[in-house]
Design goal:
By secondary structure, this protein is of the alpha+beta class. 21% of the residues lie in helices and 29% in strands. A 6-stranded antiparallel β-sheet has the order 1-2-3-8-5-6, with helices on both faces. Strands 7-4-9-12 form a 4-stranded mixed β-sheet, with no helix packed on it. The protein has a two-stranded antiparallel sheet with strand order 10-11.
Length: 207
Amino acid sequence: AGYDSAWGEYRQAYLHARRFIITFKYWPRVQYLDMWTSNPFLDYYLSPLLMCKMINTLGQVMADPKYVADIKPLKSIRGYAFTDHKNRGLVAIWATVDGVDNGTERGPQMLVKFKGKLPEFIDLMGNKREVKAENGAVKIQLTSAPLFIRSEPGTVKDLVAAFHNAQILGARNVLDVNVLPKVDGSIEAVVSNKTDQKLAGTIKAAS
């Protein structure tokens, strides 16, 4: 039998997942998170909500997490790096854009070059996603739901470096533009990158 989840159910799952992941940054100082969800965990037909599967995924993927680093190249991207119980590198990353949360726009992408063997990509429902590298880089589409990228044991530093050096595609509000008149009557535009990442795109000026 099929099961169609509504956007509200999906939103509930990814928002709670984000809260748990942020809390894991402070583990073991913070040992408890209350989701304050008083509604039943089953729908009218006794099917578990997506939130239940999300909790299972976190338990499987983020066993004994040890925080390593933040990955926040832009205001619209949030990620955290950990090691798990097998000392594997683990990054949880997602987009923080209202339009993406509401399903009305596409999230930014990251072009990441990984060192050595490609890591595993796992979605919020625990499914492993197949990825292919083009010219040595993997294009990662970010969504509201955290995506987990897991590398081999002992490689967390390389994993963090790969994300810190990633190229961002399709992000908003990443440039600071100052347009000033010059003494000779011309106009000068100074464009500054507001991030610490490489950006790709086209700048157009309307006449």
